[in-house]
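Justification of computing resources. Each target in the renewal requires a structure prediction run like the one illustrated here; the chain below, 237 residues long, is used simply to show the kind of job we budget for.
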Amino acid sequence: LRSGLPDDLRVYWSAVCVCPRGPWRWAIAMLDSMHQLTLDPGAKQYTSVVVACSISHAWEAVPRLLEDMQHRSFHQDRICRNAVMVAQARTTQWQSVFSDFEDMLQSKRSKPKPERDTWNTILNTCIKSGEWQRAMELWFDMQRSQVTPSWSTYTALLRVAEANECWGWSRELLDTLDKLGAPRTVQMYLAALNACKRGSRWDLALQFLREMRSEALSPAPKTYARIAESCELAGRF
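Resulting structure tokens:
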């Protein structure tokens, strides 16, 4: 821009689009420059800056951007609102995340309905805040809404099953991933093994260990510790 390029909205828009992968201050500077040159940045430009701030964990800059968008009557699309929720979750603003999500669920045509990435965000927020029961209820809501879960969704659900001692659900989730041809990771198995430990299901824990070996996954030290604890709690020394 300093090398003689024209002061055109498309040029600045291209620069802002790169910002989500770079420093958030650069995105803010581009937005300010567009205002100074009376280029009238729109909702898309603001959304890109909000995403850049969210990725960079710069929540302090987001409220001002949202206020400016509201003042200009800009529509916050799904990408923008999800970025805001991610930023709120990273700063432990749990209730704000839950409130925004409920607002999206109950909204009419004027606001975006939550899609898969937003559902994943709210599920992970439940995990971070310890809202395990709410996470299970949201999973049922997600199914009723006919939203197809992603690999990230199953990763989150295995954490929920672990916290709720639902070893049977852990088995079902891992089986579903296998049927889908999706990779099952050591961390996924560790969550399932912890559910087995809490439920004293030593037999299922050993089954998970055999599956890990068959999938060429290297068990971590925690793996054997949780299997041993499962056997001990079940009286199987």
